[in-house]
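Hi everyone, sorry if this is the wrong subforum. Our group has a chain we'd like a structural model of before ordering constructs, and none of us has done structure prediction before. Sequence below.
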Amino acid sequence: MSGTLSCGDTQTPADTTAAGTSDSTTTPADSGYDYPDVNYDGYEFRILNATVDASYGCYVSLDFEEQTGEPLDDAVYQRNIRVEDKLGIEIIDMQTDVGTVWGTLQTALIDQLIQSVMAGDDAYDAAYLAVGFKPSVITDGYLTDLYDIPTLNLDAEWWDSVINDSLTINGFTFNAEGNAVYGVAAHTSSTGSFIYSSGIRYTSEEKDGSLKLTIGSEKLYNMLDKLGTIMSVSDGHAHFDQSQAANPSYYYNVFAADHALFLTSELKGALSLRDMSSTFGLVPLPKYDENQESYYSLTNYSASLLCVPKSADNLERTGVILDALTYESYDSVLPVYYDITVSQKGLRNDESIEMLSIIQRSRGTEFTRVYGINTNIHNGFIDLISKGSESAATIIASNESAAQQKLNDLTSFFAE
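Answer:
Right subforum, don't worry. Here is the predicted structure as tokens:
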């Protein structure tokens, strides 16, 4: 989810003391989940996953051999113990080293799953994949439609209906040195996040249920004009640098050194800035204008999504395990993530914790980006804002027809 961090020096830091954790030998208490009467006799439930080092600060760990004393790690550990004991399984976090080059690593992980499915070797029961980097993993038929798994309670509150609904089609789911001071230290994803926060969507549903591309609206042009002013690099309003975290001019470092008023960031940014001396606060990205009723916070298309490969041989068992894991995550892991890891350890004042609640409630995603429909248009808008390249009208005119065809092909695929 994207938000904005703002620095200042008048806020009182919140208490960052976390509650202690229980001894690793303590048996976790039962939750309120209604477990089915099954026992899978020690079955190893294998989940393909990226390594921690390759995840750019995102929390991706799915299992631990023992408790670490870190509340979030221990919540994951206790969750797994409950599910493993109840269902008679062993959870295997198959973190795979595919390098650390952005884009290449996400694609490599997807390719690894594709190769497994093509070979028919049933190597994974589930996977966390950034499918937006290679949407063909969906349209070429390498993943199972989650609605085809009868033991998944996708309508239950512990499943993220906001993201599921956003990705459902036809009923299917898937320089910091010197004295320069900038208004915004930004990253490339911020352009799409600002567009989403203004309530602009790239498609509309026709009366017959088909989807139509709606990119050239007056509101979009107005939004890009506003954004071009706020985020102008040539005028010194914004700073873009996503090189490496060790680089002093990296956009996070510019904000941490008090050389930018705002930082556009995912929630993980609050944790990356724990050593920052100045106090900062969290706010959601802005509305389009005062008439917009709700805030909208974009969940980045590059986030890893839960997937089930076509080669999984027992969907009923997969559904039972994933549903239980998701419930236990909802019940005991997410509260620790939001209330301790982010709120107490990452945020520094009560107002930011309140803003976090707004961002959490207003989250969603732009499905055309996840499915690769508007990739060229999206990248064109990024260059327009960060580099002052060709006009929005030119970008749309050059790519709209191809994007609509991709949308048509996608809806046809799900209609089959």
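For your construct planning: The first helix runs from residue 71 to 87. DSSP finds 13 helices and 15 strands in the chain.
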